[in-house]
Design a protein that fits this description.
This protein has 284 residues and is mainly alpha-helical. It folds into 2 domains: 182 residues, Ribonuclease III domain (Ribonuclease iii, N-terminal Endonuclease Domain, Chain A, Orthogonal Bundle), CATH 1.10.1520; 89 residues, 2-Layer Sandwich (Double Stranded RNA Binding Domain). Helix content is 56%, strand content 10%. It contains 13 helices and 3 strands. A 3-stranded antiparallel β-sheet has the order 1-2-3, covered by helices on one side. A hairpin with a 6-residue loop joins strand 1 and strand 2. The longest helix has 27 residues. It starts with a helix and ends with a helix.
């Protein structure tokens, strides 16, 4: 990866790196290091390894391990995940001072989700800039949503280490929050369960202290290759409450247990929101 490619990525990100080595490390998948470590010691460095030797603009400064030419982006992912979560939470807190904790949690969960970050990475064409091992390259790694999500977190960490929290805040607002928040907020106002319905229901129940959801398979029909599963969602108000006496919130049918659970969670969550809104109307 040469200077023109990194220049182009910096323009897309909206951040000019003073320490280019950080950006290169953020784009380096662990498969590169694994394949390099498996090579004989006498084998010359690959052109991809040489690309990581781009000066970082601070030659007199000691390098952190993640900035070294033979590093990868796994440690940066860890830092980027934490920094992203903080900035998204703060942005939502300031934008929506009157929202309940459960609703803020749902918005944050969607904005920092692997799916959303993968979509952001795909929109930026981040895959074309990644440094991958040969095996990951052959398996279509540049298009894998999970890999793109990880790389986005690593890039966010690189920006933070390069220029601080305020610089990262501007990038996160521009790439992660502002493009998607209006649609998410609209869905929230309509009572929709966004994304992972089971997670949304779990977060809501935790915020209200209403109990724990339990998914019970109550029926299976059809041949093995065309199974249909019936799942009942029950609300266990206390840990020791028997499932037989737990409140039934919803039932759903799906071609897999997971699909049926997700649909039952959606139906149950919508029922709880209607009940909540009805109670608020009465009290008003």
């Amino acid at each position: 990866m040469g200077q023109p490619e990194l220049d182009a990525l910096e323009r897309v990100l909206g951040h000019r790196f003073a320490q280019r080595g950080l950006l290169v490390a953020a784009l380096t998948h662990s498969s590169v290091a694994h394949e390099r470590n498996s090579q004989p010691a006498s084998q010359p460095a690959s052109s991809a390894s040489a690309a990581a030797m781009i000066p970082d603009g601070n030659p007199g400064q000691p390098k952190r391990p993640a900035e070294a030419a033979d590093g990868d982006n796994e440690e940066l992912e860890f830092l980027g995940d934490a920094a992203l979560g903080l900035l998204v939470a703060e942005s939502l807190y300031r934008r929506y001072p009157n929202l309940r904790e459960g609703d803020l949690t749902r918005l944050r969960a969607n904005l920092v989700s692997r799916k959303h970050l993968g979509d952001v990475g795909a929109a930026l064409d981040l895959g074309s800039y990644l440094r991958l091992g040969k095996g990951e390259e052959r398996s279509g790694g540049r298009r894998k949503s999970a890999l793109l999500a990880n790389a986005m977190e690593a890039v966010f960490a690189a920006i933070y280490l390069d220029a601080g929290l305020e610089a990262l805040r501007a990038v996160v607002e521009a790439l992660v929050i502002r493009p998607s928040l209006p649609e998410l907020a609209s869905a929230l106002s309509k009572g929709a369960a966004m994304g992972d319905h089971k997670s949304a229901l779990q977060e809501y129940l935790q915020s209200t202290g209403a109990g724990q959801p339990k998914y019970v398979v109550t029926g299976e029909t059809g041949p093995d290759h065309r199974k249909r599963f019936t799942v009942e969602l029950r609300l266990q108000s206390k840990p020791d409450e028997p499932l037989d006496s737990a409140l039934s919130l919803a039932k759903a049918i799906g071609s897999t247990k997971k699909e049926a659970q997700q649909e039952a969670a959606r139906l149950g969550f919508e029922a709880l929101l209607r009940e909540r809104d009805g109670n608020q109307g009465v009290s008003a």
